[in-house]
Amino acid sequence: MIRVGLTGGIASGKSTLVQVLKKEGIPVIDADEVAREVLFLYPEILDYLTKTYGEMVVKDGVLNRRALGKIIFSDPKKRKDYNAVIMPRIREEVEKRFLAHSAETLVVLDAPLLFEENFHEEMDAVITVTVDAATQLKRLMARDGFSREEAEARVAAQMDLAQKAAQSDYVVDNGGSREESARRLKEILERIRRDHGKTKEEETP
Ligand SMILES: CC(C)(COP(=O)(O)OP(=O)(O)OC[C@H]1O[C@@H](n2cnc3c(N)ncnc32)[C@H](O)[C@@H]1O)[C@@H](O)C(=O)NCCC(=O)NCCS
Ligand SMILES: Nc1ncnc2c1ncn2[C@@H]1O[C@H](COP(=O)(O)OP(=O)(O)OP(=O)(O)O)[C@@H](O)[C@H]1O
Question: Ligand 2 pocket: which of 7, 10, 15 to mutate (most atoms <8 Å of CB)?
Fold first, then answer.
């Protein structure tokens, strides 16, 4: 199994490219989805949030994601503490999902914090989706209804996109059309398969 990491900044276009991967029949592990699932699987995480922030963040056993986001994206220490609780569980669950797909030729891990959390070390190839800062902010505010301040705080909570691109094997510049980015991604997948001695035709259906 070839493990491919897909990363980028918030609202850089990862999910948009994941749709392309799915159409190609490639299994994708979504780290954000795993992050949402571990909250249900491991009650210790919600317990930690209840103890630390009380009803402001957890009310009647339900997490207010927006409120937690406001806190952790504006305070690096709080973000670090929360990551220390949730990341080990995310890591375990991601590994389980890779193992569940071990019969596949190529599996993609879609993780916004691929580099920040060192998942990249376990990948055979890494693809970063980049976009210029102005377009990123514009798309983020439009998609999530964030104010400029909220959007900027989220962008600032992540490693610089150019730095991620520099450490990657491949880059998709998503500043143009969706079609251009999809084409580039397909080319990259072909190259990764070739470099690992696999062609699309050889894959098990
Ligand atoms: C703080 C939470 C509840 C906010 O939820 P919300 O629904 O508003 O955002 P969502 O989960 O859709 O994440 C949106 C984007 O924020 C960015 N982001 C998420 N967590 C983090 C983090 N800890 N540090 C920096 N950026 C992050 C990512 O780009 C992500 O795609 C949530 O993001 C969370 O639980 N984060 C911690 C888990 C995590 O580290 N996820 C990334 C896995 S690699
Ligand atoms: N090439 C493009 N042209 C115009 N809009 C785009 C393009 N690519 C993505 N978008 C839009 O930009 C927004 C962000 O894209 P997307 O949701 O794919 O980003 P993401 O990297 O998955 O974000 P997150 O890390 O927050 O999950 C979405 O509303 C999407 O429809």
Answer: 15
